[in-house]
Each structure stands twice: as structure tokens, then as C-alpha cells.
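[retry 2/3] APO domain-containing protein: previous attempt timed out, resubmitting with same input.
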Amino acid sequence: MDALLQRDFLLAGSSLGFVGIGTNRRVPYDKKFGYFPPHPSAPKKFCILCCAFEAPTHASTTAKKYNTHPQNVDLPPVLSKKKKKPFPIPIHKLQRAARIDKKMAHMGIEKQLLPPKNGLLVPELIPIAHRTLESWKVLIKGLAQLLTIVPVHGCRECSEVHVGRTPHLIHNCSGSKSAARRSRHEWVRATINDVLVPIESYHLFDPFGRRIKHETRFNYDRIPAVVELCIQAGVDLHQYPSRRRSAPIRILGRKVIDRGGFLEEPKPCESQDSMSLLREIDTYSVLSDRTIPPPADARRTAETTLKAYSTVRSGLRQLMRKYTVKACGYCPEIHVGPWGHDAKLCGAFKHQWRDGKHGWQDATIDEVLPPNYVWHVKEPEGPPLIGSLRGFYGKAPAVVEVCVQAGAAIPDAYRPMMRLDIVVPDHQEKS
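[retry 2/3] APO domain-containing protein: success.
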């Protein structure tokens, strides 16, 4: 009889959608707690619990499940310059790893490192590094051409940038003597460095070699951090050589016990090819070049530039998962390598207490390639943006805003922060 009941429960439960199997003979039910488990001394017998379920069919539930991009997204908060940046990795995890390394070093056990932490290249990331560098060149070239047809304004006293023919009228200037001007901006013509903020780092022939001292800082070239990361990830440039190891380094605790010796760093190449490469990878060369032609097809150039910008960010994200990039917790200084340099150039908050030394921590992608958010202008030929309606305006990275105003389609990832679904009222309607 029990076998027949068990078979009937299994058939009924499988038809309803869910079958739960237990080992208790009976489950007394209670209205408040649902059920009470039987006493341990009670006899046990095999039983089956059957539950029926039904998939949700409400339209709002389905929309929330498959809607990957919300309607509106607020920008990340602006960090105070009087405080240290938060650690990307929680401090307790860093302290736990440091304790483990110290214990292993005390026991004489070497740290087992995987590429690229041991000085070797990662073969899977070499094509990504090449693609990122080529997209970086396309980004600089395309952005320089688009700036000839898309007007960009920058404030003389602060870092505010506006993309459009008519500068906005939002009084949020934080520069010098802004109180006397009632926080009004002093607009001038902007350059490519105002749109694509230049973040440079020292080029190292051997990232695991001698550290850069304050007295020897002029012996090293400064190149864009994106280019330096691509070089360390496997891109070979004749103008900026890099050491390629065939044997891994050995580390005991925090001390390198075998790095394969020190090699003499080659002198920088100053040929004609190096100058042409510098014009392709550095935004400062665009400032001195006054013969940049406008694009033949503005829309196609804008789409290519926007695609290159997305490729550079995705490539950086993949490379930074493996390769170490350090950032100062107080200033925008970036260093590509396993540990930061010793140049005393930090002039940020309480730098006197640190003797000008940087507070190194792991960098984020927004520190290596800052998005530089600007106000999104829905109608470039319309009236200027005003401060009373700033809550209805959206923002976007400056590169994206330039490409969109040049004719490129708005990417889905930036639609929420641009607030395209919000209707901006008139000034009289707002008041």
C-alpha cells in the first residue's frame, strides 16, 4: 500500500512541476510557523512532498528581468580632494594577503606567481594589447578631425568642458576667484587634451628592475599610460624597447631574490620614425599640428572614433585584470608596473606629511582613461543650458558627446546617464 501511495505522489508531483522527497513520516502543520518537525524519537518513514508552481506572466516582471539598461542612472559621486581615494580592493583583504606573504617569507617559502606577475608575458593578451594600441591611434586621429567641425569650449579657471556651439549658463565654476564671478565660467576654445584627458606614466625598460628615484626621474620618458600598458603586455615598439624575460623572477615575501640580473637600458631613439610614432600615440602632437583636415564623412568618422573608444576601454579592462597598474590615492599620477616609483612629485592633500611621496594603490580604469563627463545637449541648435533645469539634464563622456554631435548613434550603454527619456520643461514651467 505504501509503495502504491509513493508512486501516486511521484506521478502527481511530476505533473505539477516540483517534487520534494523527505524522510519523515508526517509533517504536522501549524498556521504561524508552517510546520513543526517531528520529534527525534518518532518513527521515520519515506514520504513525498509535492509543490506546484507557476511561471510569472506579469508584463512588468518580465520587463524588469530582461531590462539590462535602466532608464536613468546617476553619475559616480565626485570624491573630495581632501580625502584619500577609497581602495578598489578592500583593505582587510590586502592586510590578509600581506600577513600570508610575511608568514611564507618567515618560513622560507617562495611566492608562486603566474604570468605576468612573474615577469613573463601572457600569450592570450598580446593580440588584445595590439588591438588596443591601434584603436588608441584611431581614437586620437578621429577626435582631432572631429574637433574641426564640432565646437568645444573649456573654462579658463576650472576643468569644466562643454561640447556645443553655445556654452551652458550653469554657474558651477570652482576655479580661482569664482566667488567674485558668482561661479560663472570664463569660456575659451578647448583642445583635444580637454576632451581626452592626458594621463602619462614613466616608460620602463624593465618594470621589475631598479625603481625610479627622485634624482633619476629625468632619465625616463613620459608616454601615455595606455601605450605603456600595451608595451608591457607584449607590443614591441622600436622607439620604446622593453625587456622580455624567458625565465620567471623569484620573490620571497616582498623581496625579489632573482630577477635575472640588471641590464643596461638602451638610450631613447630620436629618429624620424620615432617622431612620427609620437604624433600617432600622443595627444600633445595634435596641439602643434595646425594642418589637420576636416573629415570627408563626419558621420562615418564619428562612428569609427566611438567604436575605437569602446575598444580601448574594453582592452584596458582586460589588460588591467592581469597587469598591475598603480595610482596615487591623492593625485592623478599613474604608474604601470608591479610597484610605484619614488619620485616626490605629489602636491595633493597633506603632501607635506608624506614628503611629496605618492600613496600608491591599485588603479581603476577611470583613473587610467578618465571619462571626463560633460553635459549632454539634446538640441545643439537650441537655447543654452541653464542652471535652474540642471536636474533634468544628463551627462556623457566628452568623447561620446563629441561623436554623437558629429552624427554617431548613441550607444545603449550611455543612454541612461544621458537621460534621453526625460522631457526638459521650459523655464516658466519649471518655476
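[retry 2/3] APO domain-containing protein: Residues 9-38, 42-66 have pLDDT under 50 and may be disordered.
[retry 2/3] clearing retry counter.
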